[in-house]
Write a structure and sequence with these properties.
Blueprint lengths: L5 H20 L5 H17 L3 E6 L6 H29 L5 H13 L4 H8 L11 E6 L13
Antiparallel strand pairs: 1-2
């Protein structure tokens, strides 16, 4: 089986959320089926390392990477908590449809909260005049971020 591209995988996860949203809007959802789908979605996101491109100038100066990784982990945790809250709402006897839709729309509109992290990363400004490079950083991983990498 071919390994899925990171961005395709994110779009697939977002598509699953959109199908849950559609089922809620059309009142066509079946609680057991959605509960299983949410369980799978939560597990996939728990295992997924979100990827962000972070700018830097010198290999020896990557201290800001730690801040961005922590910020990204914060939003990954928020995503997991919101999915668990959505699952709780869906499993209640009287589902709070309005709250469920608000949670879903928040996750979908922000691309699984990745837009918050990208916005923060884009605030970084190069004040040195030296050519800017970028490196991929991942949530839950600090590997490869060490300030003297390769030295």
């Amino acid at each position: 089986m071919k390994r899925m591209n990171y961005y395709d995988h994110l779009n697939e996860l977002k598509g699953k959320l959109q199908s849950i949203e559609k089922a809620l809007l059309e009142d066509s959802f079946k609680e057991p089926m959605l509960s299983v789908l949410l369980n799978v979605l939560i597990e996939e996101i728990r295992e997924l390392d979100f990827k962000y491109e972070v700018p830097f100038v010198l290999d020896k100066n990557k201290y800001h990477f730690y801040s961005y990784i922590n910020f990204a982990n914060k939003y990954k945790s928020k995503l997991l908590v919101d999915l668990q809250e959505l699952q709780y709402e869906m499993n209640r006897k009287n589902t709070n449809k309005k709250r469920s839709l608000a949670l879903l729309q928040g996750m979908i509109e922000t691309d699984l909260y990745t837009s918050h992290v990208k916005k923060k990363i884009n605030k970084w400004v190069n004040t040195t005049g030296i050519t800017v490079h970028s490196q991929a950083v991942y949530t839950d991983r600090l590997k490869g971020v060490e300030n003297n990498e390769g030295n």
